[in-house]
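User: Hey, quick favor. My workstation is busy. Could you predict this chain's structure for me?
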Amino acid sequence: MQKEVTYLVKEPNNKLKLDDWDNRFFNTCEWLAFLINTGEIKDKNLENYFEDTLVQARDMFDQYAKDTDKSNPKRFREFKKLLNTYESQGKKN
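Assistant: No problem, here it is.
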């Protein structure tokens, strides 16, 4: 994923593709966070399996997400909530 987004950032004509990539990636993180936050994923092994990936996704969010998405509390609400939970538990990368 990092390789793909790095390529898109370097290519000036790829702004629409980069926006599409951002939306797909962060919406996927949002959906997974929703499933974890609501208890739909009950298997702790599965939750733990994705934990490091979601924590690392914070760096990508900080670097590539639109400023309006970062500051809007309604955008990626579940993802931000889960990351705050991980952070309060001392789970940072």
